[in-house]
Each structure stands twice: as structure tokens, then as C-alpha cells.
Amino acid sequence: MKNVQLLGRIVIGGQIFTKTALHIGGSPGALAIGNVDMPVIRDTRTNQPYIPGSSLKGKMRSQSEKLLNAPQNTEINRGKPDGGGRVAMHTAKSKEEYQTYWVNPLFGVTGDAGDWVNAPNRLIVRDIPLDEKSRAELISIKTDLPFTEVKWEAAIDRVTSAATPRQIERVPAGAVFGPLELVLSLYLPDDVKLLGSLLTALQLVEDDYLGGQGSRGSGKVEFRQLTVQLRRGEDYTTVDAPFKELTLAQLLEQKSQLLEWVKNNLAQS
User: Fold this and answer.
1) What Rg, from alpha-carbon coordinates, does the chain have?
2) 258-268 pLDDT, tens per residue?
3) What is the pLDDT of residue 142?
4) Do the beta carbons of residue 114 and residue 96 sit within 8 Å?
5) Residue ranges making up the domain that contains 140
6) Nearest-CA neighbor of 170 among 47, 39, 59, 45?
7) 1 in a domain, yes or no?
8) Is 84 helix (H, G, I), strand (E, B) or coil?
9) How far apart are alpha carbons 200 and 246 in whole angstroms?
10) How many domains does the chain contain in total?
């Protein structure tokens, strides 16, 4: 059995600002008059929409795989009985692939990977709730549904030209989700480089979209109020970085200084 030593963790906090309306789908539930066709996912306790960590992490990974041209060598079936709805992803099948594409150490590999995996996956992405201020604003403006709007669309049959209307539930543009929390575990000295890859993955999401209906205008987001902390060494002490309340663009401008700061402070532990 391998020994795995945790050298430290980088914690990035912040907010996600919705520049256009956001749709991250939930279960339609029981069919009833007045139900929307495509609801958003909600916290069952508070009934408030939230961004699942899996949605953000999955989008970051898929965009990063495209950037790296990583082979889509693993098929995932979403559970449809007819075998439809399958999607492909990359996961390392060898030590060479693992080392070639940084998506593998950063986001993880499948459980059947060989003993050439040198450490667990590094990245944790927490679920992101609706920000308290946005919650109050959405209550005050009396949205179509609690905290959300309903967008009507029509799907057109290209053969018959028949229109099928549908309702899409979305969190309105301008809503803020937070706190965002990304936790990057460092097991090897070279893992500091994965922080730069993580920032690249976030930039890819900003330039694309989060959730569904992105090609129709939904899901443009911006990462704001980003703050970095380092928890290091055997005593797990916290060191605040001089990188606070920044947009992602501002943090990317200081990426080289950030990586050097982490490297130097990690060495002092």
C-alpha cells in the first residue's frame, strides 16, 4: 500500500455572478397543472435554487478535456433503457496518459485505474447556495416562481413545422451564488502547478456557460470576490494570501505571483 502525504491545501472562496439567466435542471417530479417542463434544481429543505458542485466540476472538466484534446476514451450511460443519452469523457488508462493530461490528477480518474495513480484526485468543489442578498432581492421582485423566472420556448418540428411550447425555469440574470468553495489538495511538490490549471478551467467556464440552454443564451457566469488561503504542513496552519476579493480576470493577471507565493509558503512548513 502506498503512503500518501498531504502537504497542504489551497482554499479558494468567492461568488458566482449570473450575467444571464441560469438553468441547472432538477427532477420534474409529479406531473401537475402549472408545473414547468424543465425545472431548476432546488434545496429540498429551503426550496431555494443552488449550483451543485458536481455541475461546476463536471463543466470545468469537460472544457479542460477539450482544451487538452484528451481522448474521450470512457463512455458514460446516463441510465436510459434504450442506451441513448450516452456521453464520453477522458480518464487515464495508463501512467503515460495520467501524466500527459492534467485533468486526471486534478479532477480524478475512475476507480478501476491501475496502481500507477500517484495520489487521490486533488479537487473538491462544494455545492454553492444562493447568496443571502440575492435571496432577499428575488423575494422582493415577486418572480414567476419562488426565486426563479419562467421562459417560454417553442420546439419546431422541421418536417411538419408544428410548434411544441415548453416552459424553462431559470434563476434570473444578476443573481449571485455564494459562498463558492474550491479545495485543492497538494500531495506532491509539483501539485502547485495544478493551481494554474484550476484557474484555466474556471476561465473556460466563464467563456462558455454553466448549466443547460447555453446555446440559447442561458448560463453565462462570472467568478468574483475570489480569495485564496493556504493550509500547510503537519500542524495545518492557515496562511492568508495577498490575493483577496478579486475577479477571475484579476487573479489570472497575477497567476505567476500566486503560484510563487504558494510554492514559497509551502516550503516554509
Assistant:
1) 21
2) 999 999 998 77
3) 85
4) no
5) 8-267
6) 39
7) no
8) coil
9) 15
10) 1
Angular region, 53: left φ>0, alpha ψ -120 to 50, beta rest = alpha
Q: Is the pLDDT assigned to residue 33 strictly greater than 60?
A: no
Give per-residue burial for 217-243: e unless 16+ CB within 10 Å, then b: ebbbbebbbbbbbbbbeeeeeebebeb
Cell of 158: 422541421
SS3 at position 230:
strand
- At position 205, the amino acid (one-letter code) is V
Sign of CA dihedral 107, 110, 112, 114: negative
Question: Taking the chain, what is the end-to-end CA distance rounded to the nearest angstrom?
Answer: 26
Could you tell me which of 147, 129, 140, 136 has the C-alpha nearest to residue 21? 147
Whether residue 77 lies inside any domain: the answer is yes
**In degrees to the nearest 10, what's the CA dihedral of 109, 113, 117, 120?**
50
Torsion angle in degrees (nearest 10) through CA of 24, 249, 182, 55: 20
For residue range 154-204, what is the model confidence (pLDDT) as tens digits?
Answer: 677 677 766 667 788 999 999 999 999 999 999 999 999 999 999 999 999
The residue behind cell 498531504 is 6
* Domain assignment present for 71: yes
Lowest pLDDT segment from 94-98, 109-113, 165-169, 197-201: 109-113
- pTM of the complete model: 0.88
